[in-house]
Amino acid sequence: MSRFAGKVAIVTGASRGIGFAIAERLVGEGARVCITARRPEPLQEAADRFGGPERAIAVPGKAHDPEHQAEAVARTLDAFGRIDVLVNNTGTNPVYGPLLDLELEAARKIFEVNVLAALGWVQHVHKAWFAGHGGAVVNVASVAGLRPATGIGMYGASKAALIHLTQQLAVELAPAVRVNAVAPAVVKTRFATALYEGREAEVAAAYPLKRLGVPGDVAGAVAYLASDEAAWVTGQTIVVDGGMTCTGGV
């Protein structure tokens, strides 16, 4: 397929896991990409796997750092001349347990990375390109943002905020810019290891499709929302969860 031929995307948190799979899918369908993540070495390795500087550039930095955001946008425009898609994939969840035991500084960090960073990226890309040319934003949320989840309450609250932010931006940036989200359940990545390690079969048994997600499952949904096939879709959150939320669980 070549749905993204001639188009350019920025994908945050793309050195591994879901972000890597999203960038890989977009490149495979013709896009050129700027990928970001904190650690330079694995990020550059990912860019090299995508075809090197003619297809992918790597801009390391902290996703919530405004200077990093500005640099990545500027380097993308310098390298590729346009930005058609922004995928806010970066997320963090450094704590596990009840909210009453949560250090408020950790809560601030979660919201800074999971919510405010996404808004910052949209602001930078919109000012630099989308305002005059249009585009598509896809935010990676979570089913934990749709209903309570044991042990990851603040992460879920941040993803609920991200889902609402998606809807608000969809209204404010229409008609030129579409803004949507995906909400995965447990996907087999290093980030989610604590949720299934040593008990994958038990966790998967709660899903109607009887398996956990893999990064490619999410990448397919993101590619659809970013593509012209979703030209009349905005402000929506596609749940990618193997049917788990149908059973009432998270």
TrEMBL record:
It comes from Thermobispora bispora (strain ATCC 19993 / DSM 43833 / CBS 139.67 / JCM 10125 / KCTC 9307 / NBRC 14880 / R51). PANTHER family: DEHYDROGENASE/REDUCTASE (SDR FAMILY) MEMBER 4 (PTHR43943), DEHYDROGENASE_REDUCTASE 4 (PTHR43943:SF2). This is Short-chain dehydrogenase/reductase SDR. Belongs to the short-chain dehydrogenases/reductases (SDR) family. Residues 7-185 form the Ketoreductase domain. CDD domains: SDR_c (cd05233). One of its GO terms (molecular function) is oxidoreductase activity. The keyword Oxidoreductase applies. Keywords: Oxidoreductase. SUPFAM superfamilies: NAD(P)-binding Rossmann-fold domains.
